[in-house]
Design a protein that fits this description.
The chain has one domain: TATA-Binding Protein. The chain has 2 helices and 5 strands; from the N terminus they run αββββαβ. A hairpin with a 2-residue loop joins strand 2 and strand 3.
């Protein structure tokens, strides 16, 4: 199990890894946004595909107390799974994008 103090480093490491993945279509940049003061971390896609604007958050994670709150996860693997692989307990990972009514059916934090 890893310490809570290492959570920001682990989150940033995962987002950095994903920022190197380039979409198969369009001219899209992967932009890292790290607000270390407020513990908010995002990977945002920006660019163009043909004549269509591409913009959106692929991954958004906030750290709140002892919880890693996954606000958005646009990955196939699932950021929560990567966090668990790195030693973060499931009870410290909140799938914030999941309805509170449905969280009881996951192995992760309820709130």
């Amino acid at each position: 199990m890893v310490s809570i103090e290492s959570y920001p480093d682990i989150v940033q490491e995962i987002l950095r890894e994903y920022s190197t993945h380039q979409p198969a279509y369009g001219d899209v940049d992967m932009e890292l946004i790290f607000d270390r003061e407020r513990d908010r971390y995002q990977l945002v896609c920006t660019g163009w595909s043909q004549k269509r604007r591409i913009y959106g958050s692929l991954i958004h994670i906030d750290l709140k107390g002892d919880k890693i709150c996954i606000q958005n996860d646009g990955t196939e693997v699932g950021i929560a799974n990567l966090l668990v692989e790195r030693g973060i307990p499931k009870q410290n990972i909140l799938l914030a994008y999941q309805s509170p009514d449905l969280r009881q059916y996951t192995e992760f934090a309820l709130a």
